[in-house]
UniProtKB/TrEMBL annotation:
<protein>
    <recommendedName>
        <fullName>Small ribosomal subunit protein uS3c</fullName>
    </recommendedName>
</protein>
<keyword id="KW-0934">Plastid</keyword>
<feature type="domain" description="KH type-2">
    <location>
        <begin position="43"/>
        <end position="119"/>
    </location>
</feature>
<dbReference type="InterPro" id="IPR009019">
    <property type="entry name" value="KH_sf_prok-type"/>
</dbReference>
<dbReference type="GO" id="GO:0006412">
    <property type="term" value="P:translation"/>
</dbReference>
<keyword id="KW-0694">RNA-binding</keyword>
<dbReference type="InterPro" id="IPR015946">
    <property type="entry name" value="KH_dom-like_a/b"/>
</dbReference>
<dbReference type="InterPro" id="IPR001351">
    <property type="entry name" value="Ribosomal_uS3_C"/>
</dbReference>
<dbReference type="InterPro" id="IPR004044">
    <property type="entry name" value="KH_dom_type_2"/>
</dbReference>
<dbReference type="InterPro" id="IPR057258">
    <property type="entry name" value="Ribosomal_uS3"/>
</dbReference>
<keyword id="KW-0687">Ribonucleoprotein</keyword>
<comment type="similarity">
    <text>Belongs to the universal ribosomal protein uS3 family.</text>
</comment>
<dbReference type="GO" id="GO:0003735">
    <property type="term" value="F:structural constituent of ribosome"/>
</dbReference>
<keyword id="KW-0689">Ribosomal protein</keyword>
<dbReference type="GO" id="GO:0019843">
    <property type="term" value="F:rRNA binding"/>
</dbReference>
<dbReference type="InterPro" id="IPR036419">
    <property type="entry name" value="Ribosomal_S3_C_sf"/>
</dbReference>
<dbReference type="InterPro" id="IPR005704">
    <property type="entry name" value="Ribosomal_uS3_bac-typ"/>
</dbReference>
Length: 218
């Protein structure tokens, strides 16, 4: 019987750290957790609605949140930061901060958004999954999309990558799971630095699930 666990939660405290840094009493824990989800959803929705993306890749790799009494510090790790920075930099970031304050009704706390560039964009599983999702939406063959994604990851300098797509692939009447691996992906080794993401994409045939495991250098 297979025992499945999230690769990131499995490695917390060794090679993986938390994406949110804050302290709360037990009664306020769920409220802070929901607030974190609203912040991440607000950022992703703003990028999808207000920024024209020709390649189909938003480039948001990771969002880290640090909360204090009077300040919420949000760090957005982007593979292509020109989407938010280029052109009207203050206007776009200020508009995003205003949207977040309205959605969360934060009166006593200020928002501070910092954008950090990811050097090798396709070394991050979220950006790679977005690339595959964009290819599938454009009716590209799933095998061709997976092989192209693996090529991009190898060029970024990783030790191994595994990509899995599940659902009604190519519009078939029955759902199935297809996967491909290149290099080493030691999922049972806690010391191995493995990055992982799970991503869903809506196609005309239904929802497909994309999972990406990337074995990084130590």
């Amino acid at each position: 019987m297979g025992q499945k666990i999230n690769p990131l939660g499995f490695r917390l405290g060794t090679t993986q750290s938390h994406n949110s840094f804050w302290f709360a009493q037990l009664t306020n824990f769920s409220k802070n957790l929901q607030e974190d989800k609203k912040i991440r959803d607000c950022i992703k929705n703003y990028i999808q609605k207000n920024i024209r993306i020709s390649s189909g890749v938003e480039g948001v790799g990771q969002i880290k949140i640090q909360k204090r009494i009077d300040l919420i510090q949000v760090t957005i790790y982007m593979g292509f930061p020109k989407l938010l920075i280029e052109g009207n930099k203050p206007r776009r970031i200020d508009e995003l901060q205003m949207n977040m304050q309205k959605k969360l009704n934060c009166v006593n706390r200020k928002f501070n958004i910092v954008i950090t560039r990811i050097t090798n964009a396709y070394k991050h599983p979220n950006i790679l999954a977005e690339f595959i999702a964009g290819q599938l939406k454009n009716r590209v063959s799933f095998r061709k999309a997976m092989k192209k994604a693996i090529e991009l990851t190898e060029q970024a300098g990783t030790k191994g990558v595994q990509v899995q797509i599940s659902g009604r692939i190519d519009g078939k009447e029955i759902a199935r799971v297809e996967w491909i691996r290149e290099g080493r992906v030691p999922l049972q080794t806690i010391r191995a630095k493995i990055d992982y993401c799970s991503y869903t994409v809506r196609t005309i045939y239904g929802v497909l699930g994309i999972k990406v495991w990337i074995f990084l250098n130590k």
